[in-house]
Amino acid sequence: MGTAARRTSTAARRTSEDHELLIEEFGHVMQEFQRAADTLDQRVADRLGLNRTDLRCLELLFGPAPMSPGELAAAAGLTTGGVTTAIDRLERAGYATRVRDAGDRRRVIVQPTEKGRTLTEEIFSPIAEEGAEYLRGFDSTTLARMTDFLRFATRQQEEHAAALARPADTPDAGTRGGRRRRGATG
């Protein structure tokens, strides 16, 4: 092998090694992000006087469509009894209310109150604004790729959470292809 070929081979190996190191660093940074998000969620729950389950339910109420208690239970991973207790606590705190669905009077939906909206906006609006300002520094192609990654990471986390929810003796519980793996997001 000539000198030029050796240099090319070494550069390719270094590039591949650098790439793998960046992937490893990305995983570590994602773990740091998950811990920071977890800490923020706990501080928000503390500020609002809620437990984490109730905060998750409140957050879900800000989704694109109104939710029935059953839909909220499914989205939060709770039993119907568990979500009833969470909704009761959110109502007592003044953050949510049950109302009849205007389109189907037989249906009840849970929605955030004005107090719930105001307090969560006070907390999360500055975070969203800072994030949007940072993202404005990226071109559309990069933003699209970042969005794709976050969709993949979300789906991956949901799939592994579902696998872990199955009984341990289920062949694919917590595994993929028969062996336990860490995801791209930590």
Describe this structure in words.
A hairpin with a 7-residue loop joins strand 1 and strand 2. A two-stranded antiparallel ribbon has the order 1-2. By secondary structure, the chain is mainly alpha-helical. Helix 2 crosses helix 3, helix 2 crosses helix 4 and helix 3 packs across helix 4 (80-93). 9% of the residues are buried. The protein is built from six helices and two strands. It has a domain at 11-137: Arc Repressor Mutant, subunit A, CATH 1.10.10. Residues 177-181 have low confidence and may be disordered. It is 67% helix and 5% strand. The radius of gyration is 22 Å and the shape is elongated.
Note the topology:
Blueprint: H1 3-48, H2 52-60, H3 69-76, H4 80-93, E1 96-100, E2 108-112, H5 114-135, H6 140-165
Antiparallel strand pairs: 1-2
Helix pairs in contact: 2-3, 2-4, 3-4
What are the key terms here?
186 residues; Arc Repressor Mutant, subunit A; mainly alpha
Determine the structural class based on helices, strands and strand pairing.
mainly alpha
- What is the strand tally? 2
Molecular shape: elongated
- Here the CATH topology of the domain at 11-137 equals Arc Repressor Mutant, subunit A
Taking the sheet with the most strands, its summary is: 2 strands, antiparallel
CATH architecture of the domain at 11-137: Orthogonal Bundle
Q: Give the low-confidence spans.
A: 177-181
Order of strands, widest sheet: 1-2
CATH class of the domain at 11-137: Mainly Alpha
